[in-house]
Design a protein that fits this description.
single chain, 377 residues, alpha+beta, FAD/NAD(P)-binding domain, D-Amino Acid Oxidase, Chain A, domain 2, 2 domains, 25% helix, binds flavin-adenine dinucleotide
Amino acid sequence: MKTYDVIVVGLGGMGSAACAQAARRGARVLGLERFTPAHDRGSSHGETRIIRRAYFEHPDYVPLLHEAYRLWDELAEASGRPLFSRCGLLMIGAPGGEVISGVQRAAQEHRLAIDALDAAALRARYGMIRPAPGMMGLYEADAGFLRVEECVRAHLAQAAARGAELRFGCAVREWRRMGDGSVEVTADGERFAAEALIVTAGPWTASLLPAWAGRLEVRRKVQLWFACADDRYSAATGFPAFCADTSDGFYYGFPSIRPGEIKIAEHSGRQAVSDADSLDRNVDAADTARVARFVTEFLPGVSPRVQRHSVCMYTMSPDGQFVVDSPADCANVHVACGFSGHGFKFATVIGDELAARALGGGSRESMEFLRASRFAC
Ligand SMILES: Cc1cc2nc3c(=O)[nH]c(=O)nc-3n(C[C@H](O)[C@H](O)[C@H](O)COP(=O)(O)OP(=O)(O)OC[C@H]3O[C@@H](n4cnc5c(N)ncnc54)[C@H](O)[C@@H]3O)c2cc1C
């Protein structure tokens, strides 16, 4: 049986980063992925992901975001690819609402530069959007978007260049701890052993860790590209990424990066998926109606006609925060899951943390709030 220092199961957003970081530490790394590199079956596809620092979800994420930003910049430079576009982000919501107050609190606690725009300033600066009356905006210039598949590819390329062995089309069926404490993994009839195991299986985590299944809910999410011939929404003319916390749901979008189309989607809403393998990837009128209505009301220069779509999955934890921990009695098994629809921007720092834990390096105290022990078993 071939042996390694660490085996990484699942090479999507998090696993690709973990492989690159473990290989950077000089470890013998095996990465196992059931599909192809940067595929569109899991949670890390659809061209773009928002990245921002003024985090309304929980201010404890901000120190991690500082590290994530630094590592994304390093990756972009090493890859020579424009992975991270700092086009700015406009957060729109009701003054005093959960989102606006959360951004303001994170910005204040961590001294982040944010421009506050009241309804009149918002109208004056962004004539191409039409927020509901009374809404305000918070603009974060250092935010923007990551090119999601390119980021995964860049991490995989870095891992391979540093000597990691990466296998695709290779599904892990089971893993177990051996008497000597090492871990044995069975994938497509072959067995591998390692001192440590990293599980970054996204929406399939529960199949490898049944004990955690009750804590995770997989949701179907639809990404839509609408017809748009109006240059005012283009990245080239300075249109930012945006989030809009409306009375009817939480929507987000990106500047147009390809002529004739713009990506807009809904973050809120709950369509539970019982089996990630049988996800419905078709889209019908029920999937598009709410976002099309938001487009009509909020983006007057964008057509509500959907040009294309891509279906993706969120893996929700009970409190919407990530889970980065080890299962009971398996201190050398490190799991990162439950990214709850906002994890990609952290992939660099999560990958680095997983590699450090697996290879005996120091673990960040700043990630303690992501321990699974915060949930009752
Ligand atoms: C529509 C949508 C929009 C989002 N928007 C944002 C955003 O704007 N900003 C942001 O920060 N985050 C966002 N997210 C969340 C973010 O994309 C995810 O949190 C992140 O991509 C999760 O990465 P992952 O590695 O956990 O999962 P994945 O990328 O799905 O990786 C898991 C991998 O494990 C593999 N795998 C599973 N089981 C096995 C097995 N048994 N054997 C081998 N391989 C296996 C899978 O094939 C897959 O490649 C969004 C998510 C979605 C779906």
